[in-house]
Amino acid sequence: xxxxxxxxxxxxxxxxxxxxxxxxxxxxxxxxxxxxxxxxxxxxxxxxxxxxxxxxxxxxxxxxxxxxxxxxxxxxxxxxxxxxxxxxxxxxxxxxxxxxxxxxxxxxxxxxxxxxxxxxxxxxxxxxxxxxxxxxxxxxxxxxxxxxxxxxxxxxxxxxxxxxxxxxxxxxxxxxxxxxxxxxxxxxxxxxxxxxxxxxxxxxxxxxxxxxxxxxxxxxxxxxxxxxxxxxxxxxxxxxxxxxxxxxxxxxx
Length: 253
Fold this sequence. Notes:
The chain is α/β, with parallel strands linked by helices and 253 residues long. It has helices at 36-42, 65-79, 91-102, 133-141, 152-162, 165-180, 207-216, 232-235, 237-249; strands spanning 6-8, 11-16, 20-25, 46-51, 84-89, 107-113, 194-199, 220-225. It has nine helices and eight strands. The protein has an eight-stranded mixed sheet with strand order 1-2-4-3-5-6-7-8, with helices on both faces. Helix 1 (36-42) crosses helix 9, helix 2 crosses helix 3 (91-102) and helix 4 (133-141) crosses helix 5 (152-162). The two termini are 30 Å apart. Residues 123-128 have low confidence and may be disordered.
């Protein structure tokens, strides 16, 4: 499914449907395909908006979780969005939390799945191993409970990124920023309803991370998906969408 990538000044984004805004924030290796089932399911009831995060386009000083959160803030302002449902996977969840901490009046709910911000296992000290497709394939497969979800197309996308020297440097910079930017002391200040949807077999942000988020976020609920890794909206989309739909329906205007 191909979606039209729209432009608004320096911003690029996808927007489908009408209704309350549901803003999706992708992770380090996120692509629009990650959210395909989610877009198709929710565009009939919500205005689904996906800003393309400038992972490789910010200057090196702004290539950080905070820099991406500022980009999201400027995009939401430029697009005239308000009272958004903000959903983030992996690094996108982390960015969403930082945005919410500074713009709580603009956020109606926040949904986190496999979010960084407290603890995450990265690609390891050997990452990125340029030129080694087999290494990249195995690391990409670790994202999922079922390694078959790591299609050749997905592995090729990751392989292209880590074999581009500048992109690899930016990825490392963002990963280090995520580790440094721990939100443990600040999460208590988020007073919007939060929904945590977590794969029980997530090895990157393991179940203990979800439990810690649940403990620290005052208005949170936690939902588990069995036989599922770090990207539930890709790996188990039907169950993920049902949980999300139930949560959103409880928090509509």
